[in-house]
Amino acid sequence: MKWLGHSLCCFLAVAGVVPASASQPPPVRSDQEIIIELEQGWNDAFYRKDVDFIERLLADEFTATYDDGSRGDKARELALTAEFDQQVESAIQDDFTVRVYRDTAVVWFTLRLVGIRQGQRAEVTFRYTDLWVLRDGRWQCVSTHSTKVNPI
Q1: Confidence band (pLDDT; 50, 70, 90) for 25?
Q2: Spatial distance between the Cα atoms of 112 and 150, rounded to a whole number of angstroms
Q3: SS3 call for 149
Q4: DSSP characters for 6-19?
Q5: CB 30 within 8 A of CB 116
Q6: Within 13 Å, how many C-alpha atoms sit on residue 70's CB side?
Q7: Quick one: which of 83, 87, 138 has its CA closest to 114?
Q8: By CB neighbour count within 10 A (0-12 exposed, 13-18 middle, 19+ buried), where does 43 fall?
């Protein structure tokens, strides 16, 4: 069974801050911030088996290249989400780099997984490269590629 996945930021209220009025617009977020939140949401949704959330993120022509070299489409990615049954203790994404080129973005990040695999504790690290496109005002992932990092 493969370890797969891609986790939403929390809104933090600070005591003593004057509440914003209804007429003030929400703070502007950069495309980089939005895409990182989408990546984190995808990761969280995967472990919750939230197929609907992931279905909205993936473009119809989505293609995945998994760490074993196999490829999958949107249907396979959604099936892997629905079927996921491994015990994950932590799934931490970090080392994000996001480059935006108008309506296209490339994201590189690391995913560190800790959990139980085949009855034993396992720690695995993956590097991801994801390609996103902006369509109708929302970002969708068209491609993901994961590589398992071999332990030193």
Answers
A1: confident
A2: 12
A3: strand
A4: ---PPP---TTPPP
A5: no
A6: 8
A7: 87
A8: buried
Query: What are the residues whose beta carbons fall under 8 Å from the beta carbon of 59, sequence distance 6 or more?
Result: 74, 133, 135, 140, 141, 142
What letter represents residue 33's amino acid?
E
Query: What are the helix and strand counts (H, E) for the chain?
Result: 3, 6
pTM listed for this prediction: 0.80
pLDDT of 16 reads: 40
- Residue 58 in 3-state DSSP? strand
What's 8's DSSP letter? -
Q: Is the distance from CB of 53 to CB of 45 less than 8 angstroms? A: yes
From the number of C-beta atoms within 10 Å of its C-beta (0-12, 13-18, 19+), residue 35 rates as buried
- Give 45's DSSP letter: H
At residue 102, the 3 state secondary structure works out as coil
5 dihedral zone (left: phi>0; alpha: psi -120 to 50; beta): left
Which residues is 114 bridged to in the sheet?
A: 90, 123
The two tokens of residue 133 are 């496109």
Show the tokens assigned to 136: 């109708």
